[in-house]
Amino acid sequence: MKDLKGIKGKYYIASLIEEGEHVHQDFKFSVSDSRKIARSLSAFANNDGGRLLIGVKDNGVVAGVRNEEDIYVVEQAAEMHCIPAQEIRVTAFRVEGGLTVMRVEIDRSPTRPVMVKEADGSMKAYFRVMDENICVTPLMVRAWREAAGSDGVLVEVTSTGRRLLDMASRPGGVSLEEFMVDSHISRVSAEDLVVSLHSMGLIDFSYDGSHFRLTTPPAII
Fold first, then answer.
1. What's the rounded Cα separation, in Å, for the pair 29 and 123?
2. 16-39 tens-digit pLDDT
3. What's the angle, vertex CA 153, arms to CA 152 and CA 156, rounded to 5?
4. How crowded is the C-beta side of 140, counted as CA atoms within 13 Å?
5. Global pTM value
């Protein structure tokens, strides 16, 4: 049985807390809601991986974890609420005042999306942007799935596809709706094109603070 007899980590944990919350780190005061934990795990797995510091408030104050049951709540989040189930690494650290902080690490998933089974039965995927877990769009979920199943065969890019690549390469990229209006095509056709170009590695998604927009990967000009 796992317990919270953590290793010494006062200065190590303090250095992590000093970094604040960012694209690879999230603070959690408690783990009473396993689905909230699952959303963070999904967001990290769908991006570049990351870690949770459990027992740390949003302002960086250490509150400590309650007991060993917190470990099981985290494992439940990874194994039952994340689809597919995710592997995590949990390490307990003893810090000042006899408190314990749990570090939960998760790697980038080799295949996306990593979905979360919500309480209402719906399935949602999340993506880590700065210090937030952002719910991704159905188009992104579809594009990720298509890319995961792609055999890597390149197909000819149509003139409409080249138009999308041109618009996506501009600063700030382009929204799907903007591209639809500019190209006079239906949403279905526009989404099919996005999915196809994403599978080829030519189109990506970028969050502008309120919406996901279509952009080109850094190497694509």
1. 25
2. 999 999 999 999 998 888 999 999
3. 130
4. 24
5. 0.91
